[in-house]
Amino acid sequence: MRAAQPALLLFALLSLAAPAATQAPGERIQIDGASRLFLPAHLPRMGEPLDVVVHMHGSHALAQDAFYSTWRRAALVTVHIDGFSSVYTGYFRDPQALPRLLDRVEAALQSRRPTPGQSLVAQLALSAFSAGYAGVREVLAVPALASRVDAVLLGDGLHTSYVNGNRVNPAQMTGFVALARDAVAGSKDFRFSHSAIVPGTYASTTECADYLIATLGLARTPWPGVNPLGMVQAWRTERGTCAVHGFDGDQASDHVRHFRYLWWMLLDTRVGRAPSPLPLIDRFTAKGRDLAVWQTKFAPHAVRPVAPAAPGGDGYALVVQDPNGGYDTERIGPLDATDYAVEAQIYCDYRPELSANGFERVGIFARDDGNGTFDDTGGGSCYALTWDSGDGRVRCSRVLRGAATDLLSSPVLRPTTAWRRLRIEARGTALRFLVDGQTVLQTIDATLPRGQAGIGHHEWFTDNRLARGTRAEAFALTTLAGDDDKR
Known about the structure:
Strand order of the largest sheet: 1-2-4-3-5-6-9-12-11-10
Number of helices: 9
Radius of gyration: 24 Å
Structural class: alpha+beta
Oligomer: single chain
């Protein structure tokens, strides 16, 4: 691979430093100029200890959104400083920097759930994207702090200077090797993903992975394939609770994908694990939403009066629509949810007379990768059950990195206006799509093993004012248990 140009890596840094709209529900507390504390809305209110993830580098809002999607029962501290690794070295060189952050977390938790005499900070995980690894290295260099760390996650971020020509500097790997060795034994968690970018003047993440694997006496296993994020994997090494995943790609876009992959790796650790929150049920009544933990893709969505009312409803429904046109979604549930059913009453407004101007697509989706794509826009992945207003066509789609494929072998049409109950059941690789209790498609597909569920809308009208949005009632995300769910 060729050496990466400084401009390429600087672009990757800036792309995650840019401001982003905050969407994830939760409480945000500024710790200092570089640090924020995020307490997700789904955290329990009782005074039980919580795990804490301290993440280094990248937009606070993007990290909060990604972390929220994991549904971990944990608090998140984000530290972002514009620049390269030296800024994180400087921030965490003070051995009191991390304890100060944790003291602020403790104080915040005690203020919302007082538990005198008991610490509310449980396990501690350090995560870093790109240049943030240098902060982790500083923490692990202090024995008293290293012993406090239970997990480390690195997304395309682990470098050293060169010694003896072009060899990895062992002194700068000491803390990572020690923690990874504990993970091999199963007492701690270590996850590290890397691209094929070659900086040229210092050791690449690939070279550091090679050094780590050789020092631990491990071996690579070929692992070819493309994941739903579009990352081309080459190999992996796993032993105990230690994992190193190697990917192809030497462009800025390849580097940035590891920011999202970092949170996927969190799902495979013991950090913040909690019982399943399912069922999640929202009736969307005149009182508004029953649940406060929905995540919006773009525009805010309201529960509004609708006519006609859904069967058994009170005349109110959630309306999902971006007033600027295009697509929008609402999603909910943990990113690691696997076997479940999602369903909702969706108003299917048949308007073929507008076909020359365009149409709109309404529906639900399952196993979303946290992107909230729903359709053939946005670059994300999910399974979707949709209905089109122009011809009444039902689609059972697999959306992979923004490319939608209808899994139905021949078109299915429902060319009438009606409230319809749409349901997707996902059990392992078995998928079932139902409309009003009737199976439209039952198939096997192993492409998307887990993810969130939600409600989506997409419109293609020349005049956006013709769009009415996806009107949804009686949403339910439930576990699949026994034969009762095979009806």
